[in-house]
Amino acid sequence: MTVIIDTSCANLTSLKFAVERLTHDVIITDNPETISSADRVFLPGVGSAGYAMGVLDQKGLIQVIQQLTQPVLGICLGMQMLTSSSTEGNTGCLNVIPGKVSALDAQGLRLPHMGWNTLSEITDHPLFQGISDSDYFYFVHSFGVELSEPRIARCEYGSSFSAAIARENFMGVQFHPERSGPVGSQLLKNFLEIQI
């Protein structure tokens, strides 16, 4: 069973539809027992870090997520919440992947960073099997994870930021695979096939 955590701050339906094209065994839930027993878990999020972490706290999900041992994929704000902290509201995050989130230094480019971008410095990680630096992914964000050791892909928008990060069973992507066409579907498929 695949679980999409109901963070109350993301377009959960579009992600569910994208995952259902690959597997029908997917549900949206905020039930701690269901999340803990899932085969794999998606952590989506859109909006501000403080609000999203507050929702996870209210739902009693912070420790639940921190203790997951199955594959977990954070998407957009979900990726940012996997890190140690965010300067957006000086928010403490889940701290399962080392890293810090800060406002994008767009060097005069329009914010939020909204649109299609390629990735660079893609590492040999199972999440990116069959994906190259010529493929485009869809981004919508104003904050990003600073370049750090757990980075498995980089992106450039005025300046560089981590496009994807990973540590053990936890992975995160700043872009929206569910809105990135066939290449996004490939990444979701790769995640669903990862064995920990």
Structure description:
- The chain is of the alpha/beta class and 196 residues long.
- It has one domain: Rossmann fold, CATH 3.40.50.
- It is 24% helix and 32% strand.
- It is built from 6 helices and 13 strands.
- The protein has helices spanning 12-20, 32-37, 49-58, 62-66, 77-81, 181-193; strands at residues 2-5, 26-29, 40-45, 72-76, 85-86, 91-92, 100-103, 113-118, 136-141, 143-145, 151-157, 159-167, 170-173.
- The strands form 3 sheets. It has a 7-stranded mixed sheet. Strands 6-5-7-10 form a 4-stranded mixed sheet.
- Strand 1, helix 1 (12-20) and strand 2 form a beta-alpha-beta unit.
- The longest helix has 13 residues, at 181-193.
- The protein is globular.
- It starts with a strand and ends with a helix.
- The mean pLDDT is 96.
Task: Supply database-style keywords.
196 residues, alpha/beta, Rossmann fold, 4-stranded mixed sheet, 6 helices
